[in-house]
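User: I've been trying to design a sequence by hand for this structure and keep getting stuck. Would you show me what you'd pick, starting by listing the structure so we're on the same page?

Assistant: Good idea, let's start from the same input. This is the structure you sent:
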């Protein structure tokens, strides 16, 4: 059980808050690459602040405070030019670094005057179908090139803006028992009540033991299910919570980075960033990248709970805008949640001491590969099909194509094994 002060410290993300200071050490996705290709400027809200993110005519990216420093008009309604963003109200022009390049009504203004007229800017880059932003103090760390964003495969990104704090979503990433209860027992109950078929990959997953190992990018979560031995991927390899706002999960040719962007204290943008790359699959020469909204709520306000991520969303959102941890009853089965909170407190302490928190990447690199089980729940090739049919990927415009890819890849692997 926490005090209200402790709960506030871990959940508040705005400027000047302890956790806000931690979170401003990282890069966040603020747009899909497609969006800025279709229209070069859009609004984005991140860590309790409003920004304009844009793509310049010469192909660069920028992110600046939404309000123009001149009279406060929104730069979201600006004019994108080759080297910057011009306010639509009075034509003040800003570079990607926030410097004031030109004042339309005063073309002879001095560089010294313009130096005091800039707008606060972060840094923005494109990677893996997403535009990423860093809005903390300089120097900016490296944008981590996690394997998900650069590996070959079909990219499929379902997303939703949820009315809840980001931390209650992240705590779910180190709570393996919910798979047995929520995606197993509860799913079986819903299937029985609605007459749908229960996906075999998610039923009967009884836990024998769990473990949580801190490492340089977060916490590796391990589970041993009844009937498995310690050579199983779920125990021997596991998968990680990627500090501070992601989880890397998957198996059987499905690779997913679950991204939970803290929009503000009471809203989180979730992206299920999935790469489909099954061994033996007949991959297209130029694999597609698609993004799409997922449905999680019925018209009457009830939750859609007949698929995996919809069940998660129900559990996250029904905790409230910000979970009240002053009333919770923590037990020994919550050891992963306790470890997660400890890591966040350690990050707060590190930043207060002037150090980088965990998983801030300062060195240039080609790729960061994270641990990930390849055989999920020991279920074999059926896991991929079950996840597509009974997860957020069922909303994908490529759902049928993706399922066929995995079925054909499984048949090709079987043929190779039998040759």
């Amino acid at each position: 059980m926490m005090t209200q002060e402790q709960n506030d410290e871990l959940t508040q993300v705005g400027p000047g808050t302890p956790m806000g200071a931690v979170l401003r050490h990282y890069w966040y996705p603020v747009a899909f690459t497609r969006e800025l290709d279709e229209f070069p400027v859009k609004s984005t809200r991140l860590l309790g602040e409003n920004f304009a993110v844009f793509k310049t005519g010469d192909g660069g990216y920028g992110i600046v405070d939404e309000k123009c420093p001149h009279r406060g008009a929104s730069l979201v309604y600006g004019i994108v030019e080759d080297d910057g963003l011009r306010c639509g109200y009075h034509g003040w022009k800003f570079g990607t670094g926030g410097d004031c390049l030109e004042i339309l009504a005063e073309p002879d203004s001095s560089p010294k005057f313009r130096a005091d007229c800039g707008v606060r800017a972060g840094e923005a880059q494109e990677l893996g179908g997403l535009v990423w932003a860093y809005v903390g103090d300089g120097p900016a760390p490296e944008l981590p090139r996690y394997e998900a964003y650069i590996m070959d495969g079909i990219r499929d990104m379902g997303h939703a803006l949820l009315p809840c704090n980001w931390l209650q979503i992240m705590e779910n990433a180190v709570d393996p028992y919910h798979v047995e209860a929520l995606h197993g027992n509860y799913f079986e109950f819903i299937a029985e009540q609605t007459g749908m078929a229960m996906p075999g990959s998610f039923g009967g997953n009884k836990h024998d033991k769990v473990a949580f190992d801190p490492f340089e990018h977060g916490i590796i979560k391990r589970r041993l299910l009844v009937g498995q031995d310690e050579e199983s991927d779920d125990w021997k390899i596991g998968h990680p919570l990627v500090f501070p706002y992601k989880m890397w999960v998957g198996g059987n040719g499905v690779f997913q980075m679950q991204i939970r962007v803290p929009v503000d204290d009471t809203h989180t943008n979730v992206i299920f960033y999935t790469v489909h790359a099954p061994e033996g699959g007949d991959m297209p020469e130029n694999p597609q990248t698609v993004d799409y909204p997922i449905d999680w709520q019925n018209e009457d306000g009830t939750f859609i709970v007949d698929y995996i991520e919809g069940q998660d969303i129900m559990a996250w959102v029904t905790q409230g805008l910000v979970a009240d941890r002053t009333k919770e009853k923590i037990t020994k089965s919550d050891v992963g949640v306790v470890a997660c909170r400890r890591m966040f407190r350690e990050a707060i302490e590190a930043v207060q001491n002037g150090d980088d928190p965990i998983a801030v990447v300062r060195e240039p690199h080609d790729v960061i590969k994270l641990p990930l089980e390849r055989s999920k729940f020991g279920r074999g090739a059926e896991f991929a099909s079950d996840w597509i049919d009974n997860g957020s990927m069922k909303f994908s415009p490529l759902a049928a194509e993706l399922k066929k890819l995995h079925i054909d890849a499984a048949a090709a692997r079987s043929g190779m094994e039998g040759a």
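That's my pick for every position. To get oriented when you compare it with your attempt: The chain has a mean pLDDT of 93. The longest strand covers residues 254-264.
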